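Handout, section 4.2: multi-component inputs.
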Amino acid sequence: MDRSIRVLRVGQRYVRDDRTLTHLCLVSRALGAESIYLEDAEKDVTGTLEQVNKTWGGEFKAVLGASWRKVIKEAKGEGRSVVHLTMYGMPIQDVIGELRGLERILIVVGGPKVPGKVYHEADFNVAVTSQPHSEVAALAIVLHEIQGGEELKRAFPKSKLRILPTAHGKRVVEN
Amino acid sequence: MDRSIRVLRVGQRYVRDDRTLTHLCLVSRALGAESIYLEDAEKDVTGTLEQVNKTWGGEFKAVLGASWRKVIKEAKGEGRSVVHLTMYGMPIQDVIGELRGLERILIVVGGPKVPGKVYHEADFNVAVTSQPHSEVAALAIVLHEIQGGEELKRAFPKSKLRILPTAHGKRVVEN
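Output:
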């Protein structure tokens, strides 16, 4: 299946949390999403992403400035299923069969400030355990489970550097 | 198999990164590790963990103050396999069969400042993709893969609150 997965971040904390934002972007990129929707105020991260694409390849994109309402509405309009990650949702292991059948997905990653409306607009509210932990970890496991591990084998074309996996040490080559 | 998994964090950044540290602790707890080893300077997080245990159950522990050398040495002394997460390591999908066979594991989570010696002391250097992303995400996927999803069904005894998974909304009960 030629899957298309995009990520939307909603409900940022009042205190800026740049590290978590960067992690969410890089995990989306590394684990097979094609883009992440961010608020305008988060544009600082786009420089980091451009640099990572340039060095490590691929065409992952950050899309700035659309409200979450608009992103969700447009996603639904183009037949995308909305999968919201929340510790209150249905266990991932109970819904993964259905999720794997979806070709076009918008994964919504929340924080403590997610509006109630997101829970109702989502086609799936999905929990990676019902324990408090990390939206970065939840996103990683859901991307991994939906793609059944295929995302781990993905190539990132046009990179400047490439790692040669090794048992002990570091091996990097220039392309 | 009655698996025992512990986590060690090595190579912190010079700038304190409390959010990532908290995420690493909570992911270790939620996804089936029994404890995490931290440096003394990171003791602030233990209050958060105590509060989470009290509210959401379980007996996850942060162990403070041992050097990484000592923790790795002791782990090996008690027959624990050392699994170091690094983008330079062998692909997780190539070594997961071996990792699943291990009963006692110390997962070492690094950062940019991991000493070269860790790469050589580790029994396995494991990569979750050879792309730069997040130690939180890498830890989550490795815990998930080693335990084959069993960790998602884990109970956390003696909790004050418990979530009832639901398709749309939030349901929490007091025990």
